[in-house]
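FAQ

Q: What does a record look like?
A: Structure on top, sequence underneath. For example:
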């Protein structure tokens, strides 16, 4: 009897790794331009577009996870890591997801990093404390995280990105763009932008892009520098102010003091016949207007 009990215990111990983690390998049909919705609390989510009309999910569900909900067909597919209602400790789940390239992608996580690439529909990516990275040729993007970094490399796509305590880096964007961070750097590079709103409290703002004819650019920071790199033949009207910094202008006109009793400087001028409007403000940092 004791021997039988020992054998049972050995098999139970051997089975622990299988109980601790669950491997996932599932697929189902999906429309070529449908919506794919993904929810994961911790771990990672990596989504890649492909040329098949199906969604495929592989990866590992963390210890303590209840199950993976994988449902839907046609125009909407749901991929969700389901946790127990009264879970005290659940390990992160790592998911690799293939979706039709034309999909609209909606991903939400808490502490899981998000990576998306090769998806040409709209991207809505949101995390609380994870890093969000996106690439490819999306129609537009909307990316948010609280304490993680954001990096979007998008071929001439408009969109917005926001972080509270992380960097926001947008590359290759165009059209209407918004980017903001409370305590991180904001950097935007791209083609021809039409409306740009850049804001941070304690970080540097950098814009390196062309301007559409009637573009509107607004860049504001409290305790960081503002660097605007624009084509040498740009046609724009500029309004630049800083409370306790310098203004460097490659387009020629010098800045002037706002008061003989205060360190602030301001600069208003037009080049190339005007047209676009550029406003740059820093409370305690320098402002640089550079030519490409």
């Amino acid at each position: 009897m004791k021997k039988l009990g020992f054998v049972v215990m050995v098999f139970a111990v051997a089975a622990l790794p299988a109980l601790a983690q669950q491997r996932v390998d599932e697929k189902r049909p999906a429309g070529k331009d449908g919506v794919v919705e993904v929810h994961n609390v911790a771990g990672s989510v990596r989504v890649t577009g492909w040329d098949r009309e199906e969604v495929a999910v592989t990866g590992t569900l963390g210890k303590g996870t209840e199950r993976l909900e994988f449902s839907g067909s046609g125009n909407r597919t749901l991929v969700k890591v389901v946790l127990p209602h009264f879970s005290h400790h659940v390990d992160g789940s790592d998911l690799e997801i293939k979706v039709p390239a034309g999909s609209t992608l909606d991903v939400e996580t808490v502490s899981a990093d998000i990576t998306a690439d090769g998806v040409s529909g709209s991207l809505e990516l949101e995390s609380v404390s994870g890093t969000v990275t996106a690439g490819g040729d999306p129609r537009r993007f909307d990316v948010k995280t609280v304490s993680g970094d954001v990096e979007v490399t998008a071929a001439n796509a408009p969109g917005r990105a926001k972080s509270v305590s992380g960097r926001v880096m947008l590359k290759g964007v165009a059209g209407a763009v918004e980017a903001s961070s409370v305590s991180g750097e904001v950097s935007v590079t791209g083609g021809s932008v039409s409306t740009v709103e850049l804001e941070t409290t304690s970080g540097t703002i950098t814009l390196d892009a062309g301007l559409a004819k009637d573009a509107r650019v607004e860049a504001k920071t409290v305790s960081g520098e503002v660097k605007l790199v624009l084509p040498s033949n740009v046609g724009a009207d500029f309004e630049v102010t800083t409370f306790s910094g310098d203004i460097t202008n490659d387009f020629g006109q010098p800045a002037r003091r706002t008061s003989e009793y205060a360190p602030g400087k301001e600069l208003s001028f037009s080049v190339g016949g005007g047209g676009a409007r550029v406003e740059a403000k820093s409370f305690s940092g320098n402002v640089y207007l550079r030519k490409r």
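Q: Is there anything notable about this one?
A: The radius of gyration is 25 Å.
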